[in-house]
Structures are given as structure tokens and as C-alpha cells.
Amino acid sequence: MPGPTLSAGLGLIHKQLTYHAKEPTSDFSGQTVIVTGGNAGLGRETCRYLATLKVARLIIACRTVTKGEEARQWILDQTKSQSVVEVWELDMSDFQSVKAFSKRARSLDRLDAVLENAGSWPKQWEMVEGHETTVTVNVISTCLLAYLLLPRLRETAVTSNTTTRLSIVSSELHKFATLKALDNPKIFEGLKKPTSDYDGRYNDTKLLEMIFVRKLAEAMSASPSGKGGISINAMSPGWCNSNLKPGQTFGARMAERLLQRSTEEGARLLVDAISLEKAEGRHGQYVSEAQVAKAAGWLYSGNGKEAEQRVWSELNSILESIEHGCTNLGTG
């Protein structure tokens, strides 16, 4: 694949300098929403906005419950909201935790939206659950959680005659991915090879997320139960001030000052990504600057489509080995 291009770089800079997200006005009354990684950074700010937008039940999913409780109290103090705000444990580096969380979510009386915001940007090489940490957290667990929550989202869509939403927080950096693992007979085996290019690995995982959303939307439309009133997307909040940061060089710090969006502005875009009013026309799409946008151009090429199918097939095999039957959309 071609990797970074000048046009992608200039496009990113232009968006950062010229676009300013509007305050969200969507009404989340009566809705139940899950936000992963909701205890800090963009996730916490998104939860604050949701509380002001009258969400009925808000679930902060995070690895450390005590930190989640601190975020919960901060949100309630800031908003004086009447929303029911809960903290549920979810460790995206642990497949059993993902499965336990999903099982608990089945007990919800409804589930209107899921924002998969939790992610990892490595500073050193580490393997967890048989894969490099970034791949485990950003790709495998993220996709596993999506599959396992689809049945509850579909049930709510049908019983409440609404469109439920699932958004995976991706990044414009997916356009900078090189995915050298494509040279391997098995892509996910290639991703196990040690690398010191942690920024590149992060970009690769964002591309893999994009592929998953595109292929999942395609599969949902072709399944016996169809889309089932669910709209899924991959969104980018742009370059924001968040708790997810790689090691910083002097040049990167200077670029931050010039280009970075505030946490609050980034959170506005996360809220937009799961709003009911914006769900139509976004299924399987990339959403950037609160609009449907074109994903990395390479994905639309013959080689890109071939790679998408390889990723889709390998990823589903991995997910089936973790939870048998989870990829069966016909019964979900």
C-alpha cells in the first residue's frame, strides 16, 4: 500500500486549522449509551456532554473502576444532571473482560448507542493475549465488543422503532498507515513481529478499524436480519488534546500548539458520531468533521479491496477463536 501522501498531510493540516466543531444539541432523552474509555480525556468530556444532553442512562466503561467513579462524580458535579451514570469495568487488553462486559450489557433494558473510544498508543513493545498490545486493544477487542453488543442494539432498534448506533473512534491517521504486514501470508501474524515504529503501528490499527467497519456494514446488509435498524461508523475527532499520546519530540510539541484541538472540541465530534439525528446515511462510513468523508483512497483500489477481504477473513477467524459464533449476524 502507498502509505502517507502529501495530499493526506496537507488535508489534515487544513482541517485542523479551519474546522471548528459546533456545540452538540442532540437530545438523548430516554436513551442508554455506553462510552468505553469514558473515565478520562475525550471519553470523559464526551460523557459530560451526554449528561447535559439529557441521556437517561450513561455507562462509563473503563479498566479502573475507582478512576471511573472519580469521572462519574466530576460529571455529575459539572452538569447537575439527573442522568443515571454508572461505571462498569472493562479491560480492553483482556478478552475475558470484554466478554464479561458484553454479557452484563445484555441485561440492559435498552441500548441505543455505543461509542468505542478506548484505545492504546504504545511507547514500548509488549504482547498481550497473543498479539501486540495495540492490535489487541484497538482492533481485536474493539471488534469483539462490537459483535457482542450488536444483538442488544438490534433488539432496541426493533422494539423501540429507532435507529441504534455504534461508532468506533478511528483517526485521520489511518490514511498514513503502511501496513507492512500485508507482505506476510497471514497479516495478523506479521503484526506480531517486533517494531520500534510505534506511531506506524497505531496508524495501522486505525486502518484495520476502518476496514472492519466497512466490511461489517457490508455483511450486515447481506445477512438474513439485515442492517436491523443499526447504523455503524468509524469516526475521527481530529488531532485533539487527550490522554492518548505517544512520546513527544520538540517538533511534535510545536505542532500541537499550532494545530491541536481542545479536548472539549474533540468530544463534540464524538457526540455527533452517535447522535440519532445524524445516523441516516452514515452506515459503514467514515465520519470526519461531523460529515461523511472519503476514507484512505487506497481502500477503493483493487489491491485495497483484496487486502480488506484478507483482513476481514483473518480477523473473523481470530474472533471466532475467542467467542464461537460471535460473527454470526444471521442470529444476532
Provide the gyration radius in Å: 19 Å
- The termini sit apart by 34 Å
The amount of helix comes to: 40-55%
Count of alpha/pi helices: 10
CATH topology type: Rossmann fold
Keywords: Oxidoreductase
Protein name: NAD(P)-binding protein
GO molecular function: oxidoreductase activity
Could you give a short description of this structure?
This is NAD(P)-binding protein. This protein is of the alpha/beta class and 332 residues long. It contains 10 helices and 10 strands.
Question: What key attributes describe this structure?
Answer:
332 residues; alpha/beta; 45% helix; globular
Describe the fold and architecture.
It is a single chain. The protein has helices spanning 6-18, 41-52, 65-79, 95-105, 133-159, 187-190, 198-222, 250-259, 263-273, 302-322, and strands at 32-36, 57-62, 84-89, 113-116, 127-128, 131-132, 164-169, 230-236, 285-288, 291-293. The protein is an alpha/beta fold and 332 residues long. It has one domain: NAD(P)-binding Rossmann-like Domain (Rossmann fold, 3-Layer(aba) Sandwich), CATH 3.40.50. Strand 1 (32-36), helix 2 and strand 2 form a beta-alpha-beta unit. Helix 2 (41-52) packs across helix 3 (65-79) and helix 7 packs across helix 10. The radius of gyration is 19 Å and the shape is globular. The two termini are 34 Å apart. The relative contact order is 0.15. The model has no long low-confidence stretch (mean pLDDT 91). This is NAD(P)-binding protein. It comes from Meristemomyces frigidus. It holds the Pfam family adh_short. InterPro entries: NAD(P)-bd_dom_sf, SDR_fam. One of its GO terms (molecular function) is oxidoreductase activity.
